[in-house]
Amino acid sequence: MELRHFLRVILRRWWLVAAPVVVVLAHLAVTYHPPPTVYQVVMRFAAGTQPAGLSLDYDRYYPWLTSEYIANGLADVAETRAFAQAVADRLAERGITADPAAVQAAIVTDNAQSILVVYLTWPDPAQCRALAEAVADELTQNGAAYFPQLEGLDPAVRLLDSPEPFPLPPSLRDQLLGPAVRLGLALAVGTGLALAWHYFDPTVRDPEELEALGLPVLARIPK
Questions:
Q1: 13 contact partners, CB below 8 Å, separation of at least 6
Q2: Structural domain span for residue 201
Q3: What is the pTM for the complete model shown?
Q4: What's the CATH number where 128 sits?
């Protein structure tokens, strides 16, 4: 089927293509709600060890290098299920129930040299603050549970930012993605219905269809 023939089929039954789109538009107009605002806490942590060696001046490089290793390692630890379970246990002690899987999904980490950065996203601001405090406590107080090398260092990790949640409005992409997908599916369904109708319709509408059957067209009455 040539493209122009395909377009003629679509335009001939445009109402069938448009019907599902109109239905979806009407449904969206009644039921659509924009994505809720979520809250995010950004916390930075400094990591380090006590200088050790024959000379503080000679070995100054190694504590700085070790601090980078600590920040990098804890960034990976903070995204594990074990860490999320520990945070959920701390929340349970405060009377807050949180699914460890949800906690794990809410934590994203990064590190820049000796600085560990934790991004925490949660739908409720009060719970977001409590969750951020639990994350900070677990990192600053229980680092040796993940790396025994940190045992005895007080502290090996220090919180640099107050865990203050701030609103994170949904992006334009998040607001439009759902309706766009629904409208795209409706358009595809309408196009499929139009093509199916054309396939099962025995009516001959174009001279090309007769010529394809080997029948000569002698004349054509204009519409």
A1: 193, 194, 197, 198
A2: 3-34+172-212
A3: 0.64
A4: 3.30.1890
